[in-house]
Amino acid sequence: MSDEKHFYLSTPIYYVNDVPHIGHAYTTLACDVLARYKRARGYEVSFLTGTDEHGQKVEKAAQAKGETPLELADRVVKRFQSLWDKLNISNTDFIRTSQERHKLAVQEIFRNIEAKGDIYLGEYEDWYCTPCETFWTETNLLDGNCPDCGRPTDKLKEESYFFRMSKYQEQLLAHIEANPDFIQPKSRRNEILSFIREGLRDLSISRTTFSWGIPVPGNDKHVIYVWFDALTNYISALGYPNDNDGEFSKFWPCDVHVIGKDILRFHTVYWPTFLMAAGIPLPEKVFAHGWWTVEGQKMSKSLANVVEPNMLIDKYGVDAIRYFLLREVPFGLDGDFSHTALVHRINSDLANDLGNLVSRSTAMLNKYFEGELTSPGETTDIDKVLQDKFTKQVKVIDGHMEALAFNKALQSIWELVGAANKYIDDSAPWTLAKEDAQRERLGSVMYNLLEAVRMIGLLVTPFMPETGANIGKILGVDPADQLLEDHDSWGLLKPGTIIEKATPLFPRIETE
Ligand code: ME8
Known about the structure:
Layout: E1 6-15, H1 22-40, E2 44-52, H2 56-65, H3 69-86, E3 93-96, H4 100-115, E4 119-129, E5 134-136, E6 154-163, H5 169-178, E7 183-184, H6 186-197, E8 203-204, E9 206-207, E10 215-216, E11 219-224, H7 226-231, H8 233-236, H9 247-251, E12 256-260, H10 264-278, E13 286-289, E14 292-294, E15 297-298, H11 309-316, H12 318-328, E16 335-337, H13 339-369, H14 381-402, H15 406-427, H16 429-432, H17 439-460, H18 465-474, H19 484-487
Parallel strand pairs: 1-2, 1-12, 2-3, 7-13, 12-13, 14-16
Antiparallel strand pairs: 4-5, 4-6, 6-8, 9-11, 10-11, 14-15
Bound molecules: ligand ME8.
């Protein structure tokens, strides 16, 4: 980590020729959970997302709609921003590559690398896939088509500026070898290592066949290649080439770029070599997550199976969607989105396990003590087991969060939910309530149970901010006391607190 109490993370910047779908929501959501967790651990967090607005793909999409590229971008960017609001995304900045601050940074890094002699003018002849904005050599093509998306490619010959990427091959290999965590997960790292070992070619980084982009400094016949432009967003947002009141020196190098596996090579080969050439330190880590299919099929407009996040949030609630996306699939692996799986998770994990725990605990406290929490008495063996489990698990969860193993972190939190539910069964409050002599013991059981609920509320907050806040409110916890870093130890609920009977947190979804 670059600095102990600062944390900088980023999503990819999304193309504006498409409207946001569940895949975009997934990456942004994962970053949000990590950002919230780090804040709860006392870090100052810079969390960047934004939109990638230049390039031929966007220019063509705008033409097809009879708009200018900027009109298209202005329209689509609102769709992204309103979805992020609705998903409770806590980004601290939103960069658009059409902004002046970005243009300045891109031209500056171009000039910087050119001044060092690592950019030269040459001629390019290769096969170009416009949907992927990628050049391919003849041998890369599959039956003449793009090896990534399968669509036709065009032969392009043009004057082009080149970046001496080949020069950085050994330095990049050495960096990846010396920093085992630089590319995650491990399988992705191996994939990139073998790609680099096959040999890096110099990279064409300008185009003359269209104009929607940032002009090459001193030669505006050329616009800068959209990936050279887009990747620079991670530093332009911090004010590069300036320090932006200390932002750049505080947050760079970035702690983690979170991306989908589709854009790994751009982030772990192109971007680090650009930075090496410019003399800028490399990001600490690039984490590539897997790909979502929908009901077993690739998401595509032609199949009309694109999952629209707004609709899902309206139907099931924002926290249920946040929970499902990060619980269902190990971060880093591919996964399948299905309505059956979503409804199952909501009913079993949220309504049944968590929702019932909160309802039962608060209902019993009201039934037996009119809602008033009493001081816990002597600690028995089963109390100790519960407390130890919570204390240990907080550390286990922290390890999972550091590793971006969101599903494991949730699994571990749900083990606590299970332990608390089991504690109810083992301590059988309904039996204790029958004997006056057990009154103090019953009070202790209630205290432990609600303390367990408090800790669970804190731990779920980064994943489900509304649910975490609701649990805090039910328990009468001051929101200022919800910072995980200072409140993750057992026994902080104040005796004497009045806690009302909770309404169900998650209504069950009826299925046929
Ligand atoms: O690639 N499953 O933008 P983009 C999971 N502008 N994640 C998915 C997904 C799916 N089915 N579909 C998309 C670009 N994603 C460039 C990035 S960064 C300097 C420039 C997510 O709009 C995933 O994070 O095509 C993927 O990397 C990203 O959307 C691609 O978004």
